Amino acid sequence: MLPFLLLLAVGIVDVGRAIYYTIAVNNGAAAGAEFASQSKNHAAQTNNIKQTAVCDAANGDPRQHFWNSCTTGLLTTDNVSVTLGCRCANDNTGISCDPMPNSACGSGIVCAPGVDIVECVRVQTTATFPSLFSWPGLPRSYTANGQAISRVRN
What we know:
Structural class: alpha+beta
Number of helices: 3
Helix content: 25-40%
Shape: elongated
Order of helices and strands: HHHEEE
């Protein structure tokens, strides 16, 4: 009975790790999008957006990108992508950024008089982590993906 219980315990821990990594990767994406959404100046700082996501996923403190390089942990800046897009505020989607607009900002978007251009940012994160145990019929490693989309404030 003990081997079965140990196998069950390892499986529970493995599922818990997968949930933890998925939450960390999603939180990293949300932290990066939150940093970018503060202003158009912040949205243009791709490296700082990526570092914010990496630091948040590493230790839950996105502010550390200003004084530390959080290169150890679940994410690296290579695992974080940042996309900016713009649209007119009245294009029958309101001012929402979901779905992410396909038009690049500064690409000659012309809106009706008095209608603002809405700038959006999408931060996507990906991390691959190994399983603790080689389960028959299951992969040896898993990939967690995160995504956050936010409107950039003026």
